[in-house]
Structure of Uma2 family endonuclease:
Amino acid sequence: MAQTLTPATPPTAGSHLVLTDISWEMYEKLLEVFAEHPSLRMTYYKGTLELMTPLPEHERYSWTLGRLVAALSEELGMEIVGLKSTTWRSQSKTAGIEADECFYIQNEALVRGKLKIDLTVDPPPDLAIEIDATHSSIDKMAVYAELKVPEVWRWQKGKLTVNILSDTGYVECGTSLAFGSFPVKELARFMQPDAQKGENARLREFREGVRQQLRS
């Protein structure tokens, strides 16, 4: 059974609540009210608000994929800005979401010195990551499309997909806008926990694999 979420009751892992007929003003108020619970994720789309707290499985995959993206950018000599689960919202689109991980890559220079980003004047993040460990009641890809996020990676059932925004929505692609011809789907090999190797050892193995590919 889903836990009822209130400011006085800290949400536990796996909590899930869906509210309908929520105004934009109420959504923004709830963002303020639950700001003290950073593990609580909110998704808002055209009057429907979903509140979820991620499971440990979800957080581990998110942490791992975020580290792989950061390591890949370093090995490729690219600058990035990582903003983790920042809330991205647009009142005109009545849409808001907190990605599991998100990055500025192509537009890194435009936000490099900023601690506050305003989507009315700044571009959206270049890459968002969604870990689909549990079922969402809101179409998160539709929310990302409203916010014009050009690229979303999804991890679901052991598979990494790269989704590129088109005029009609997201299209699954074999290559990444952010990382060009690099075969980013190979990151999936380093996503699953390994009882024989620690996470840092796996990351070093990944870095060496990237270097070998660059030398070939």
